[in-house]
Design brief:
The protein is built from three helices and seven strands. By secondary structure, the chain is α+β, with helices and mostly antiparallel strands. Strands 1-7-6-5-4-3-2 form a seven-stranded antiparallel β-sheet, covered by helices on one side. A hairpin with an 8-residue loop joins strand 5 and strand 6. The longest helix has 16 residues. The radius of gyration is 15 Å and the shape is globular.
Amino acid sequence: MAEPTSITVTRSIDEPSDKIFDLLSNPERHNEFDGSGYVVSDDRTDRIQKSGQVFRMNMNGPHMGGDYKTDNYVTGFDPNKLIAWQTAPAGEQPPGWEWTWELQSQDSDQTEVSLTYDWSKMDPQAAQDLGMPLVSQEQLEESLEQLANAVSGE
């Protein structure tokens, strides 16, 4: 049986999709909903407004020996519905893992939010060497919990 190459978690958040998307498209606030604990802060980045943008984040994790930076290449952008990016060590091209946030309005004050962490585009040996997945399902679920808290606290 093949090893899984993605994890998706979903939950309903009692906020409208535009409010949630506003938070997701602002890298300055990404540390508020990072269940992995790796995101420290943004690195003077602008609000995400389209596919093709690159935003840089300050990170910290034992898998990289402490502090490091990432360049995040926006691969999907549909206002109030979808935002996605592939992450790479700063100055490098993405090795193939991607974060995708999908928003589906349930009504004017409730949104179903799905977060997918997908490393299927990685070279299988590189994925194994890196120890993919670096983020667990529980950490992704924590991201959704933190997102709900961050957006409702505005």
